[in-house]
Design brief:
Strand content: over 45%
Radius of gyration: 20 Å
Oligomer: single chain
Number of strands: 13
Shape: globular
Largest sheet: 9 strands, antiparallel
Number of domains: 1
Helix content: under 10%
Order of helices and strands: EEEEEEEEEEEEE
CATH topology: Porin
């Protein structure tokens, strides 16, 4: 188990504001402070099974600091039912937060919280080759990192990882 307390005191904070409209700009949001605890724990009741959970609380001054949710939480598991196969699942929740609006530099808006369920299956052919299938946002939750820029819905991908 890990417990961390953080304190960030930032002066003349610059945030990159991507287009549109071109060109990209930087916005000076001035001074802010961010404090809070972060806790995480991992337990492995068997050699082939692991669980983890974590959460962070962020208190910002002023309260509308861009890209800092007040709460975040994650939980997950990894299980190897047979030696070459590993199955992973994780659930993530991110609280609402303020973001700079790239359409109107210097302004910010609130985006709502989101929940994500992700899964992945790995098959280790040998120590150099692994095949995988992964699913992201499997609950098909509608969310966005910036107003008007939706993130993808449920998606699945597969591939091969080569270790040289």
């Amino acid at each position: 188990m890990d417990l961390t307390w953080f304190y960030d005191d930032v002066k003349d904070a610059l945030w990159f504001v991507p287009p549109p409209p071109p060109p990209p700009t930087f916005a000076n949001i001035g001074h802010y402070a961010n404090t809070g605890p972060e806790v995480s724990a991992e337990v492995s009741p068997m050699d082939n099974l692991k669980f983890f959970v974590g959460s962070t609380y962020s208190h910002t001054t002023p309260s509308e600091v861009p890209n800092v949710p007040e709460w975040t939480a994650i939980a997950g598991a990894a299980w190897s039912p047979v030696k070459p196969v590993t199955l992973h699942v994780d659930f993530e929740w991110v609280d609402r937060r303020y973001v700079l609006d790239p359409r109107f530099p210097g302004t910010q808006m609130s985006v709502r919280e989101y929940y994500l369920l992700n899964m992945r299956g790995d098959y280790h052919l040998n120590k150099h080759i692994m095949f995988f299938v992964a699913g992201s946002n499997l609950l098909d939750y509608d969310y966005e990192f910036r107003p008007g820029y939706p993130m993808p819905g449920a998606s699945v991908m597969g591939g091969v990882e080569l270790t040289l």
